[in-house]
Amino acid sequence: MSEPVVVERRDHLAIVTMNLPRRRNALVPELYLALARTLAELQDEPKLLVLVLSGGKHFCAGGDLGGLDDPALSMRRAMQMGSRIVRTLISGRLPVVAAVEGNAYGAGFSIAMACDFVVVDEASTFCASFGRVGLQPDYGLMWTLPQRVGIGMAREILMFCEPIRGEQAKELKLADRLAPVGTVLDTAVALARRLAQLAPSTLATTKAILSRSPMSLDTMLAWEADTQSLLLHSEDFAEGVKAFGERRDPHFTGR
Question: Of the candidates 157, 174, 196, which is a domain's last residue?
Fold first, then answer.
């Protein structure tokens, strides 16, 4: 039996692939358990700077509703693991680029929206399909979606449960890049490599602050003052200033 989650490391980035293609990466227990564990473990690898999250040709079909032998208990476990996954994607130190091919339905849509950047092609399809089976949106979608598209559009997407294909997804800002068919992963990796050239501490503190949004102006300014003061004393800041003066690209180390 193949591993439900496969990790490929390329220099300072890791490609995390959900790997149950016959199930279109439906969130069966072995998949969501492996994904939660893998994402958390990768945060502790100091050499890693960026993650790419993929599902191959079918990003994620959402929850495995047919596999709920004890619905209440199974759903609660799935929700707990979903919370771990979403918290790591949103609050973890590593930026995450989602490479979405095929369908991202239900909780699969939620996982994509929890990533920092989303790459799709014309055939990619998002759908908040929860209402079609009598459930509410989960895996943090009612928090992430309004931040991407605004509360009005989020309400329409969540309540009408209509599929949204690639070009429209880009127009609505569900996706950040629209790639030619067959190049989604390559485009996501290229985007990740650009992120990996930036100061890791800057990316981490920016993610940390954004993950607490929305917040009051006073709270935001206090966070900025605390984190900026720390960054000012970092080796990366000194390197950035030196590289700027020498008119060259900086070489950041995360220190």
Answer: 196
CA pair distance 223, 74, nearest whole angstrom: 38
Residue span of the structural domain in which 86 resides: 5-196
Query: How many structural domains compose the chain?
Result: 2
208 with 162, same domain: the answer is no
pTM (predicted TM-score):
0.90
163-211 pLDDT tens trace: 999 999 999 999 999 999 999 999 999 999 999 999 988 888 888 888 8
Structure tokens at 122: 């014309």
Chain centroid, CA 115 distance in Å? 2
Query: Is 255 inside any structural domain?
Result: no
Q: Residue 241 and residue 174: Cα distance in Å, rounded?
A: 35
Q: Which residues lie below 8 Å from residue 24, measured CB to CB, with a gap of 6+?
A: 58, 60, 61, 102, 103
d(C-alpha 90, C-alpha 172), whole Å: 20
